[in-house]
């Protein structure tokens, strides 16, 4: 069976190298904060790495492929590096010459973080929603990573993280750093269960009351003792006949 005219016409095109581009990058580049011309620069670097096996492109080469001048493309590269989408690596080639290359790993890290923020795992989804409701805004990818670190790397139970969130709301401190300090302080004081937490809070309130000089629960303020008859007898008795004298010479 002979190939159709359309297939025959496309044969040269289909035999040319192709570039694999993550669909997430094409769909979400604007949400990531990328401009269209910056996306073109990243795609040209990606294409060079996949089809030529190297990302060692000079400003002139990269600019020519992107339809930009060397000055324009380097200004674009500078912003991509500053915003954390691109890195510039250094190495020595086989002849010992110092060469630089473009590294797209920061871009892949951004994509992974964005995917986690948009679609959090089911176990964390309710916790993320709770934080967003209390903070009154969506969580960033870094904040979602911090949540995962508390639950995974640090091993805090979910209920304890929720209690730390409540502490921050009561203190009007809508900050992940503040919540992290609360969790660290509880861990340092061996708070491992709800009972431990209630006991720790009770002890904390007691210390605060002592510091302010307030009586503890179940205690009343000490009453002043009345003067004993002997003490009262020693107090001087004023003779009202000498009132004028007392006014002139008190004590």
From TrEMBL:
Q: Where is this region: Disordered?
A: 207-239
A Pfam entry, by short name:
DnaD_N
Query: What name does this protein carry?
Result: Primosome, DnaD subunit
Q: Which domain of life is it from?
A: Bacteria
Q: Which residues form the DnaD N-terminal domain?
A: 23-111
Q: Which InterPro entries match?
A: DnaB/C_C, DnaD, DnaD-like_sf, DnaD_N, WH-like_DNA-bd_sf, WH_DNA-bd_sf
- The UniProt record lists the DnaB/C C-terminal domain at 129-200
Family label:
Belongs to the DnaB/DnaD family.
Coiled coil (UniProt feature): none
């Amino acid at each position: 069976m002979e190939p159709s005219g359309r297939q025959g016409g496309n044969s040269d095109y289909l035999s040319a190298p192709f570039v694999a581009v993550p669909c997430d990058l094409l769909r979400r580049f604007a949400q990531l904060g990328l401009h269209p011309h910056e996306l073109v620069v990243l795609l040209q670097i990606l294409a060079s790495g996949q089809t030529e096996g190297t990302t060692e492109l000079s400003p002139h080469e990269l600019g020519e492929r992107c339809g930009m001048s060397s000055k324009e493309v380097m200004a674009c590269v500078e912003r991509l590096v500053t915003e954390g989408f691109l890195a510039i690596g250094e190495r020595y080639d086989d002849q010992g010459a110092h060469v630089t290359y473009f590294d797209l790993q920061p871009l892949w890290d951004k994509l992974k973080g964005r995917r986690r923020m948009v679609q959090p795992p089911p176990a964390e989804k309710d916790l993320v929603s709770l934080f967003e409701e209390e903070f009154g805004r969506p969580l960033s990818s870094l904040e979602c990573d911090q949540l995962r670190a508390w639950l995974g790397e640090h091993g805090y139970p979910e209920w304890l993280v929720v209690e730390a969130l409540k502490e921050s709301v009561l203190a009007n401190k809508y900050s992940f750093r503040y919540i992290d300090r609360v969790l660290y302080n509880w861990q340092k004081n061996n708070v491992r269960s709800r009972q431990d937490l209630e006991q720790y809070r009770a002890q904390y309130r007691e210390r605060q009351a002592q510091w302010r000089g307030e009586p503890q629960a179940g205690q009343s303020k000490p009453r002043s003792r009345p003067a004993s008859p002997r003490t009262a007898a020693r107090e001087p008795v004023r003779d009202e006949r000498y009132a004028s004298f007392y006014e002139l010479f008190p004590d």
